[in-house]
Design goal:
Length: 180
């Protein structure tokens, strides 16, 4: 981390160091929430409260990545800006599979990550920023559709697993009653 911050501090890009600090703070918040969840006292909080803590940490992370275009891409060269957009879209795809169990988490993750990126790109010159912002928005819509499809499949699978478990329990009860 120290080497990264040294590079960020020496960079000619004025928004790079504050953005890097924000990213690392958001990731530290997520790790803190994970360690707190795994601690012995975590049972005192209900699952609903832990979901709220997770959504807060995940939203901070998504927003920190999403504002990369505002922090960096305004004065970056075209190739650097394209690499940044591809990297942020990769982060969006990577986080999608982690958040597929909750529709709220999916919407927050993808929305807070990709909408600020598109808005930041629109602030660039119209010849480059606007078409790239359109690509990001199209990617957002396609990824959200794909993520919601994965969510429906996961919920259907969990529902059928619960139904099978109930059926097995009922069959075991019938077997015990038949043996008596």
């Amino acid at each position: 981390a120290a080497a990264c911050f040294t590079y960020y501090a020496r960079s000619a890009e004025p928004g790079l160091l504050p953005w890097a600090v924000l990213i690392h703070l958001a990731q530290a918040l997520g790790m803190l929430a994970l360690f707190a969840y795994r601690s012995p006292w975590s049972a005192r909080l209900g699952l609903h409260r832990w979901l709220q803590v997770y959504l807060l940490a995940m939203s901070a992370n998504a927003l920190a990545w999403g504002i990369a275009a505002h922090a960096i891409a305004q004065s970056a060269a075209t190739v650097e800006c394209l690499l940044l957009v591809v990297a942020v879209m990769g982060v969006a795809s990577g986080g999608m599979s982690v958040n597929v169990a909750s529709r709220a988490a999916l919407a927050l993750w993808l929305g807070l990550l990709l909408l600020p990126l598109a808005a930041g790109l629109l602030r660039r010159d119209a010849d480059f920023g606007a078409p790239l912002a359109g690509v990001v928005m199209t990617y957002l819509l396609c990824t959200m559709g794909f993520a919601l499809h994965q969510h429906r499949r996961l919920m259907r699978g969990l529902r059928s697993q619960a139904e099978r478990s109930e059926l097995v329990d009922a069959l075991r009860q019938q077997k015990v009653l038949a043996e008596q």
